[in-house]
Known about the structure:
By secondary structure, the protein is an alpha/beta fold.
Amino acid sequence: MERGVEEERILEELEDAARRNIPYGRVLSSMCTVPHPIALKACKRFIVSNLGDPKLFPGTASLERACIGMLGELLHLPSASGYITTGGTESNIQALRTARQLKKADPGRANIVLPESAHYSFDKAAQMLGVTLRRAPLDDELKVNVDAMRELIDRDTIALVAVAGTTEFGQVDPIEEISGLAQDEGLFLHVDAAFGGFVIPFLEDPSRYRFDFELPGVMSVAIDPHKMGMSTIPSGGLLYREEGHMRALEISAQYLTSQVQFSLAGTRSGASAAATYAVMRHLGREGYRRIVSECMANTKLLYDRLKAMGLEPVIKPVLNIVTFKVPDAQRVRKRLCDMNWYVSTTSRPEALRMVVMPHVTREVIEAYVADLKKVLDVV
Length: 379
Ligand code: 0PR
């Protein structure tokens, strides 16, 4: 560290490190993908701007506002409030923090009712906020059981959570019903659409899965541009029906140019907003529809191939996530890893899980299926 090193040598070191990363074409376990080229360009141009001090970067701040406008439009509420987060984890933590601030709940008593399938970011949120999670069981199709949610609610419940696109199985909860429950009980409902938010609106029949602000009980939504939105990492979106709800997060920051802050991070990159703005403007609904329709066609291809091998699916894919029961899924995953294929496994039930992101093309699927056949023959 004492003496600096020449640029050329460092660039070589960086190249070496970059080459050791797994190329996306071998990855069926990730919810991220190669960002769109225009997102990369925007990211590079804005990497030095800091939205933690937005009055110094008014241009970047205007891109963030435009992103929230476009995300709101996608989620049936063009007037939604919100900000660009670092991803689903920050959005989920902040949504629960909002609910806790609004209810002025007793520390240590407050609870949140959510599906068993909800992402582990809610566990992080619960630890940080000092609230208890009450996880409701799922039905046979791995959607949350709404009656069970209703039974878990008591006077210390401060919010409900529903998931549009579960991490493991890509299932969508019955959010219309949960929205009704939230209204009956006067509770804040947060929808985690970190994954499904950029998929469901672009399906052939999006009205089959109503999940966003068109449902009157939905108060906040997490939607991640760095997953199916084709933006750069980190880019998340947290949107609110009511600006006043977001204001519950307000922290005064006297010495900053903006005086108040809502975000969890203080200093935060403007590149997230710029990249998301660029790719959403460039693709438009039409572009995303094309991408999602390709992913869904490839999902069907993978599903059909695995069924033809005599394997049993956990559920029929709702979004672009495929899960199949295989004997000893952990061992299968390890054998595939030896062949340089990256897939994940689920626990309940145990299954092989594959996310059909845009980089998982027809060719990738055919090559993967051929290798999976070899692995299953010997396991
Ligand atoms: N909500 C849902 C429904 C999610 O699936 C995830 C992440 C989150 C929230 C949290 O989002 P951030 O990770 O952006 O904070 N789901 C994936 C997971 O945890 C994320 C992921 C992405 C994992 C790429 C691996 C990977 O290679 O499994």
